[in-house]
Structures
1.
Amino acid sequence: MAGTDEILVLKAKIQELLEKAENAQVLERLKAEILEFISSEENQQAIAALRAEFLAAISRAKDSHTLDQVRIDALGKSGIITSYLGSIGKLPPPQRAFVGKTANEIRAHIEEALEARRLELAASELTAAIDARAVDITLPGRAQQMGTRHLISRINDEIAEIFLGLGYSVAQGPEVETDYYNFEALNAPPDHPSRGLADTFYVRDLSGAASAVAGESDVLLRTQTSGVQVHVMEQQKPPIYIIAPGKVYRRDVADPSHLPQFTQVEGLAVDKGITFGDLKGTIEYFCKQMFGQDRKTRLRAHYFPFTEPSAEVDVSCGICGGEGCRFCKGTGWLEIMGCGMVDPNVFGYVGIDPEVYSGFAFGMGVERIACLKYNVPDLRMLVEGDMRFLRQF
Ligand code: DAH
């Protein structure tokens, strides 16, 4: 392809030729041919410049996005090379083939350069991506945190194990209960404070006109697992030896010794000839299994509506060994459960003859037992979900 200087020399020569032309006709023909020639040279020059420009842009492109932009500028629908090729049609026929051929060659050349650069960039971008996500296999592995069972579940199971070993089985009752099972059939007098709205969560009956309950609902979240005694005795004839673990609910504000939801384990034994001695022996055995052979137990007379006589059970303090300390409030004893002999009135509700059968019952708070066993000063720590605390058990 001719350079600019060569074209100038050429132009001068042509000028000379024109001046020497013999007649006007020859002159006109010469002029036309020369014009064509020059424009063809110019075309080639322009294409050459474009080619150089695009090849430089291609090798300058640092990433595939920039490279793609170069491709669009050159060969896209309204790219320079494309529109150049499109305008060839307007050239006079003698030049059209020549310019067209050159332009097509350049297009092929640019396409080739684009593809080569694309492969180069793809390879280096892949390497960079791999490097960025590289795993350092020399780093020590991250140990998987092993989960632990929640202390409440563990104590629950420990209690169950002890009683299963004595031949008891596990019974279950509903958490949403009626007044009848939670209070009435357990011989609780109508004016018993726990029946009040201040102590019990009542479930509002929203069933409308068809509701059998006028005013205050008789449906509630059970306040104790003792109701399971009634369910079991309704369905099963003695001998009965069951424990009933489960959640209970009370309208209490959480503090170190109260939770609005907690866990109880109820126990019930009904058989012929069951005495208070059996109750005492069972409780003592349980306490030694749960807290250790060196712990003593004592029973204090108490009142529960559904047992007669009733007692509260204390276990000797594990911190001071019975001497008296802050944990046991100076008494040397910690209260752990309520118990007593099943009241004949309760047998009356379930159709068990108190002249033939007798029985004992007991009920304990699982959270409280957990805290006493591990000297945890505040019940709320069990339900806060702080893993630093829970992982210790
Ligand atoms: N249900 C009683 C409470 O929640 C605990 C209890 C006391 C259960 C004496 C019993 C029992 O079975 O005999 O405080």
2.
Amino acid sequence: MSTKIAAEVNKRRTFAVVAHPDAGKTTLTEKLLLFGGAIQVAGAVKSNKIKKSTTSDFMEIEKQRGISVATSVMGFEYRDRQINILDTPGHKDFAEDTYRTLTAVDSVIVVIDVAKGVEEQTERLVEVCRMRDTPVMVFINKLDRVGKDGMDLLDEIEEKLKLNVCPLSWPVGMGPDFKGVYNIYEKQLNLFAPGTKYGDLTALEDLDDPVLDKLVGEDYAEELREEANMVMEVYPDFDREAYLKGQLSPVFFGSAVNNFGVKELLDCFVEVAPTPTGFHTEERDIEPLEPKFTGFVFKIHANMDPRHRDRIAFMRVCSGVFERNTNYLHVRKNKKMKFSNPTTFMASKKEVVEQAYPGDIVGLYDSGNFKIGDGLTEGETLHFKGIPSFSPELFRYIENANPMKSKQLAKGIDQLMDEGVAQIFTKTSNNRKIIGTVGQLQFDVLQYRLEHEYGASCRYEPVQLHKACWIEAEEEEQLKEFLRKKAQFIAKDKEGRYVYLAESKWMLSTAQQDYPKIKFHFKSDF
Ligand code: G4P
């Protein structure tokens, strides 16, 4: 069996495509699926982007996406590899969902718009990748438009994303003068030919070959020679080990909408990207080739049909083989569970899965048993690490707007928080509940879903807060003192951990200065 697991693990590449909204994530994902034969026509992947930031838009899109399951994981085979692309929300207000998804992938492709360069959301996403040393590949998109100079972009990526880069292709011209890319790795010139499947490939071992002048014109040939030589001198050669450790990021240039540069990216990706990696738990590290099954839930998705409140928990298989109709231990609940309809996803098709291997994502129908971070094992008690909550940025008090429905409200809040819709903090002084989010839309979605799925209604009230941070002290006495002195600003999160609610930046830095022995954490796993 273990050789079978090894063979399956070797085949798998599980990753996410991430980007600042509008950089071209959906377009690139779709082109990757086209190459993989998972879809036949462009436009088959519905954009999960919300053009207008309204709740009804969001709910409408969610409904259209058929509970988002069809596109949550997109699997296809390419060159004997099983590729699993994990989808992430396109809206910045749901960034936390993306951060959690990143805990379940083995590598990431970051898309950057050549004209906009590194944007705010790109920085945050890559920061999350760096926390786990996730290998990152970069695709600089929209070369058919005028954008920043290639060298400047690489500098920007190194500086803002703190990634060491290694360009594997280099553009010739840009915008209306975009001629194509030179593949430094394969020593091939790919001429831009919009409308063709791959562009027009010419092997070009030596850039001094006069054929280059004929292909792109003397001026561009000269420019490419100069730039490519400089790039090869300045940047390190590709080193797979360094890439796998998250220390070196290959960079490709192209134009996703024109299908250009995508094949180079995919071909390189399947060659070098990591196979399913190990995971950390509080008790021990898990290796994918272990014979016994382990997995954890990284995302929970509600069924949008209000008549069925069941949800789908997305579980990443970490080791061994997951089998249908087999008893597994739900570690947090210390309860045996088996799954009769576990689901896998092949592009738009949903299928019941009999067996799943490390790197695979399985959808488990759930009536409220799971929350994010829950582990399943064959019996061992393992608590998965590294699925943090981040300190939210927006805060509101949440109040019950219909006293007849307080039970429904409590249940709804409880389940939706488990799903990761937002975070809740309960003030220890007066039990008032505060909802914390990354974006405004999360408040609206929470309110909408409480009403439509639980029949409860809530109202928000403003609260002046700058940050919520988890606190910890080595000595019990110090913590007690802090909790006493700051009693008005202390809350507990859903797990019962203490959180300091700082009203302003100044209050936070004063507290940090006054209590040097208290640790203030901006994410929940410390
Ligand atoms: P996202 O998922 O990262 O948010 O981006 P998405 O793929 O939806 O792309 C955002 C916009 O950029 C889309 O245009 C898309 O067509 C365009 N785009 C993607 N790749 C390229 C490229 O290589 N070159 C150029 N010029 N444009 C590109 P849109 O007008 O917002 O949507 P649509 O109406 O074209 O679908």
